[in-house]
Amino acid sequence: MKKILLTILMSAAFYIAQAQIIVKVLEPANLVGTYAFTYGDIPGGWGSPDLNIPANAVQDTLAFVNDGSVGDSLGCNPLVNDSLISGKIAVVYRGSCEFGEKAFRAMNAGAVAVIIINNIGGAPVGMAPGTYGAQVTIPVVMISQSDGAVLRSEIEAGNVVAFIGSKAGVFADDLGFLKGDVQRARRFSNISMLSQNASEFNSRMGSWVRNYGNQNQTDALLNATVVFGSDTIYNQTSLPFSVNSGDSAYVSLPTFSQASYPVGYYSVKYTVTTLNPDGDNSDNSVNSDFAISESEYSYAATNPVTGKVIRSAHYRPSDVTGEFQNCVAFQDANAGRLKTTGMSFAVTSSNDTVLNDEYIQLRAYKWEDVFTDINDVTYDNLVSVGEIDYNFPGDFQDSLIYLSFPTPILLENDARYLFCFSTPSTIMYLGSNQSIDYNTAQDTIAQPSFPLFVDNSAYLNGFGTDIVPALSVRMESATGINEQSAASRIVPFPNPANDIINISVGNYTGTAQLEVFDITGKMVKSENVTIGKTSVLQLNISDINNGVYVFKLTANGETPKSFNVVISK
User: pLDDT for 504-513, tens place per residue?
Assistant: First the structure.
């Protein structure tokens, strides 16, 4: 295997500013390991100590609280086992009352920290402080329901000891990195017509490597692989390098490039290894995947099977008084090969408010400001080249919605563009992705990625390089190759559907016939429909049973188009 070390740069300040926080079980041996978590921090309104500071770490035995109620320990009533909780890490289940109240009761019982176990499946969630959170002065973290189930019996037996806090200096040998430390492709989902060879698409490879341990490291190795399908198409390992305790190093690997790039998902994995066994190997590997797509352009991660953007959270500015506008940037030397036909997005609402009649606008700008990079970027000359107005006809929480521009936008070689989601709504949160972080990639490329506009202020990286707007832009050939008629760009949402299905049909307006067939080929519904200026057809399907159906839309002058819809009530 070829071993190359092109560049090593040292930066102690880079390490210190981003200490790694962990929740790690130290005992019993069969449960030892780090666990996924969220935590209450000062910016979020909690009074808890800054866990980035090593001195604020906590290590102790876990004990369930008991508030006298039947069932899981919720900690919403006065605790009746203060003597058991005092001096330990209190454990309580999510539910019934605010996170802050649970933590406040445990703290007053003498707990040194609090672990809240989620009461629903999936990853642990962010915790609002509520009424009492600002008064809580001990660490508060949440772990998943599944991890809580694994730990439960041993916690009840008093056998679980855990560490919560910055791991800086805790272990002798401990290298690692964060998701923002690694190099990654300029965008996650790249258009195949702009990625035809190594000169049109390639990706820098390398990563910052951090030494969290209390011993200097020598003979460390960084490896990166790229896998497409079942084939490993890139595998490079650095020469051995050293990183002092509390320091970090940037290690560069050869650029990844190919003579051609088939459409599909490319799995990229970085791994760092130490000469001695690593005290915490949970952060020794980071994925930096990307995709080559026929038509979907996005910075957000996409599903390897469907190619659609993944939403892991939803965001809106807290201080917006007018409108907020989140955008994705685009520029390519060969952009003239393409036209933009539409965009996809997803939103949720606050406080269980329905989305019915809420308003958004999708906008496309030609970005005519003249600047070199992110160091002199300006936003004074945004020229509108397309927009879509949309009022939600139903409560489509986190449904991926596709809307077409009334007229496809012909792109120009090397011109800058912004494709934006904009709303004056006070309840709407835009779908975002938190699985990737463009921190190192943006520092290297130094070009804007996904700016955010709040009222009259612009923010270069939106909510952060690790909070990527789940906006995708549909781009198609401008020359007629693979060109689709307006009515052929059919995207049903939500899918699976309940009682209402919306069907985006490009820029077609007018009359059409819609037929619905079950899996045996029997027609179960037929309607003559009219498509309005929003190019979205809404159909009531409350009279159709659960199942998989084939919808066929026949518009005047168009070839019939078929698509599948799952109905699940």
Answer: 876 667 788 8
Q: What is the pLDDT of residue 566?
A: 85
pTM (predicted TM-score): 0.77
Of 401, 409, 318, 331, the C-alpha closest to 363 is 409
Intervals of CATH 2.70.50.30 along the chain:
8-12+172-293
Assigned CATH for 490-567: 2.60.40.1220
Residue 188 DSSP one-character state: S
259: left (phi over 0), alpha (psi -120 to 50) or beta: alpha
Q: What is the mean pLDDT of residues 121-137?
A: 89
* Structure tokens belonging to residue 77: 């009533």
**Domain(s) of CATH 3.50.30.30: residues in the chain:** 21-166
Q: Which long-range contacts (CB under 8 A, 24 or more apart) does 540-548 make?
A: 540/499, 540/500, 541/497, 541/499, 541/500, 541/501, 541/516, 541/567, 542/499, 542/500, 544/516, 547/518, 547/519, 548/519
By residue count, the chain amounts to 569
Amino acid found at 252: S
Is residue 176 within 8 A of residue 280, CB to CB? The reply is: yes
| Of 64, 70, 72, 65, nearest in space to 119 by CA | 72
Domain with CATH 2.60.120 in the chain: 309-477
Domain ranges in the chain with CATH number 2.60.40.1220: 490-567
pLDDT tens sequence across 369-412: 999 999 999 999 999 999 999 999 888 888 899 999 989 999 99
Instruction: Look at domain 8-12+172-293 and name its CATH class.
Output: mainly beta
Q: Is the distance from CB of 339 to CB of 407 less than 8 angstroms?
A: no
CATH class of this structure's domain 21-166: alpha beta
Rounded CA-CA distance 160/201 in Å is 50
- CATH tag for 309-477 (out of 2.40.230, 1.20.1070, 2.60.120, 1.25.40): 2.60.120
Q: Using a CB cutoff of 8 Å and minimum separation of 24, what contacts does 184-187 make?
A: 184/268, 184/288, 184/290, 184/436, 184/438, 184/440, 184/441, 185/268, 185/288, 185/290, 185/441, 186/441, 186/445, 186/447, 187/290, 187/297, 187/298, 187/299, 187/449
Locate 486 and state its tokens: 């307006």
